[in-house]
Amino acid sequence: MRRIIIGISGASGSAYGYMALQALRSMGGVETHLVLSDAARRTIGLEMGMTGEDFEELADVVYRDGDLAASISSGSFITDGMLVIPCSMKSASAIAHSLNGNLLVRAADVCLKEKRKLVLVVRETPLHLGHLRSLTQLAEMGAVILPPIPGMYARPQTVDDIVAHTVGKALDQFGIPNELFRRWKSPETP
Q: Are strands 30-36 and 117-122 parallel, antiparallel or unpaired?
């Protein structure tokens, strides 16, 4: 059984986190450990008309963001890594500078220090120089920066198609096979 931490920050794009949880639950074989920031709970309500509990029902283990004694706050708790989806610039900046004031940031920091996969689906535009420096620092530390940019070659028809493309690309980073989006094929390939 694989074990992945899912962090959902307060950035716009709660649907990305929800679809990631749905996909992992339907695939099986992956134990999900969820931490929602306080801001995420608010954003989920505003964007989706849902509650944090709706997200929590899809996870195997749920933690409160203020619980810095949770198992995922320690490197001795073995995971395959962490996906922060979506990741606000506030959270990204806090991770870049090891400002471990909440569990989401601490769990991400643990992944970096233990050399585990950390994938950040960063949601902000436009980016100013401070954002870019934080993202560069994170990449230099080993994080994967994966902004939610759809591949138009897949010819998305719905918002769900666009969200699925990003979620599929994020799961690819963990080596989790998925068919969430249409993959590129050479135009000569049938």
A: unpaired
* Cα separation, 145 vs 48, whole angstroms: 25
Nearest to 5 by CA among 97, 162, 114: 114
Give residue 57's identity as a one-letter amino acid code.
E
The pLDDT tens digits of the residues spanning 18-31 come to 999 999 999 999 99
The residues facing 119 across adjacent strands are 83, 144
Residue 73: both structure tokens together: 């706050």
- In DSSP terms, which residues pair with 30 in a beta bridge? 2
pLDDT in tens, 70-127: 999 999 999 999 999 999 999 999 999 999 999 999 999 999 999 999 999 999 999 9
CB atoms within 10 A of CB 139: 13
Q: Which helix (H) or strand (E) holds 31?
A: strand 30-36
pTM of model > 0.85: yes
